[in-house]
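Re: that chain you flagged

S.,

Sorry for the slow reply, it's been a week of failed gels. I finally had a moment to sit down with the sequence you sent. For the record, here it is as I used it:
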Amino acid sequence: MIKRLSLASRLALLFAACTAVVSLIAGVLFNQASEAHFVELDQQLLDGKLLALRSTLQGVDTAQLFAQREAQLRSELNRQPDLTLRISAAGQRWYDGAPGVDLPATPGLHSLQNAGTDYRVYNAALLPNQPGSPQLSLMLDITHHQQFLQRMQHLIWLTVGLSALATALLGAWAARSGLRPLRRMGEVAAGVSAHSLTQRLPEQHMPVELAELALAFNAMLGRLDDSFQRLSAFSADIAHELRTPLSNLLTHTQVILTQPRALEDYREALHSNLEELQWMAQLVNDMLYLAKADHGLLMPKREPLALEDEVDALLEFFAMLAEDAQVSLVREGTARTMGDRGMLRRALSNLLDNALRFTKAGGQVRVRIADGVRLSVENTGDGIPAALLPRLFDRFYRADPARHEGSSEHAGLGLAITQSIVRAHGGRIFCESGAGWTRFVVELPKTD
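Prediction finished late last night. Pasting the structure tokens below so you have them in one place:
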């Protein structure tokens, strides 16, 4: 199986490839510029020699006149050892410094290679603007130029190779140094377990590109830590809640069985045990309900509801309890929404039951409904400290410390269930307390 390259190796190879490409392009451009520069220099040199030859052979238009000037021509050519000349006229060669070499016939500058020697050939008329003028072919030896260009090409390839190698090494070092925060993140992730969720990445030392990732990673660890803490607390709370009724059942049953008793005593004992078992069954059902809510399995039906009708039905149900507790029930406002009648009634019933339990005789429980849709359940009585408000919706939490654990009346799950129902409907719930009133506010989405 082929081993995959690390990110640092990939970056190093990418740096090397980019450097090689840039160096190669720069070398090719420099080589072309050098070659063009040499062509320009050769053109200038040949133009100067052409003017000198025209001056030496001025007025020569026949072979006889050329023979008279040949010695002067040779003297001029001796001044430029790397320059060769051929003169042709009417199909005859008056002078040929390169016999056996095929030269281009068209005017202008040309490049030629013969017997391992490179030439720059320049064809021009001896007598400009004169028909039948003899033709001059100047051949300049440019072998030293070509050798320079070849050395330049070799140097370019060497530079490309060395720069790619150097960049690969430096790129590997830079990539390894730059990716150190990622390795640190990997070390932290490797050390995360259910017993070690307190580690965090130092966001202030992270590069800008990784700061957001580090922030999200730390937030994830925070959520995991909170979830594990809640799970541990939830398990401990379940054990506490079930311990007392189970102990009561065992003790009561053992006492009844210690000696023979009358049928009525057995009946009373079974009735007492039945109450405890019913409470435990309700507790288990509530926990299952919350577990479904945690996994997004609560799927409320959507049907049009008049909230005032639902509240009035519940107030009628609690009317006798409120009368016994000497508490008045009031409803204000109307609104319509889309929701699950059974689930919303359960949530409102929990809020009303909670309000009645903590309202003193002579107090009032008031339900206010407003467009929006906003519904609040308010009751008079002692306020709740601000520090406790965020915890009211925690499972098994009781704001009243006087309520003993394992109570068969209220397990502290009512507000948690209410919050789950409200969230399943896309709303939110919160509590406010002050000025002699405690208010639970439910906000539901508006109906179209």
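What I noticed first: The chain has a mean pLDDT of 82.

Talk soon,
D.
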